Amino acid sequence: MIQTENLTKKFVTKETTTVAVENLNLEVAEGEVFGFLGPNGAGKTTTVRMLTSLIGPTSGKAVVNGFTTGKDDQEIRRCVGILTETPGMYDNLSAEFNLEIYARLYEVKDVKGQVEKYLRMLGLWERRQDEAGTFSKGMKQKLAIARAMLHEPRIMFLDEPTSGLDPEAARLVRDFIAELRTQGRTIFLCTHNLDEADRLCDRVGVFKSRLLVVDTPANLRSQIFGRKVVFHLRSATPEMAAQVQALPFVREARAVESKLVVTLEDPETYNPQIIQLLVNSGAEIQFVGELRHSLEDVYLQFIRKAAA
Which helix (H) or strand (E) holds 272? Predict the structure, then answer.
């Protein structure tokens, strides 16, 4: 659905050359929610602008929905929807009229029907006659999402869709993204909200001018930290930790107060063996849980490594 090959963008002035995106090689599958993560100035928005044919690359190429940037730009713009971080609207026009303008630009057949559909879906129908400039930031963001969806694009580019929203509005936007996912749409999500990316994305890429890593959030956690299982005991001893540490599939075992923290690759397979060993050694197991590192922990590891 989205493929890039050595996609590069440089901004050149008389004094400097700034490499915003360097040799990006990426594939995003149809129906996938892909999270594009990186700090401010990393080149995420520049990448989105190239993929949506708003700007051209310096070198390399991108194919979006079978169309090549620089060659099929008009076709690409027709088949994608884009939500920018600061979406502009005609503030003096009603919400309904704003959407009607864009629906006609997208050559939507049933303009009135599509406008009503998305205004209702996003809870804005009762405010349809109000000027867009009177809307709160959250309402403007929902209006911008409606605008991006009017022509029923198969690919959505969302740049910080919940930035600056209150919790209720942010949750509505996340629920809407989840609904798009069930419809089989491909979503390219740029966000600083790593908890949001963790919940919504099939895979994530960590990016800082160049792509540092791509994988599922779960695999990235395992790659960096391994999986840690916490056995809560009535009493944990160094001797118990040493016995568990001796098992061939255990990377590390530590006794911490009344807990035994065990690092291993496949808890679903090996937890029963550890439990059996602990019971045979006289341990009283109260319950077992997994220590979960956040996607933020993983992200920071890669960004710090790139800066080193």
Answer: helix 267-280
What are the tens digits of pLDDT across the range 263-287? 988 899 999 999 999 999 999 999 9
Helices (H), 63-159: 73-79, 95-105, 111-121, 137-149
231-254 tens-digit pLDDT: 999 999 999 999 999 999 999 999
Greatest C-alpha distance within the chain = 75
What is the rounded distance in angstroms from the CA atom of residue 256 to the CA atom of residue 237? 9
Query: For the whole model, what pTM was predicted?
Result: 0.83
- Write down all domains in the chain, each with its CATH number in brackets: 2-215 (3.40.50.300), 226-292 (3.30.70.100)
pLDDT of residue 142: 87
Among 212, 183, 179, 216, CA closest to 197: 216
Q: What is the DSSP letter of 134?
A: G
Q: Let me know: does 163 contact 9? Beta carbons within 8 Å.
A: no
* Long-range contacts, stretch 123-127, CB < 8 angstroms, 24+ apart: 123/172, 124/95, 127/95
Q: What is the dihedral of CA 92, 97, 101, 106, to 10 degrees?
A: 140
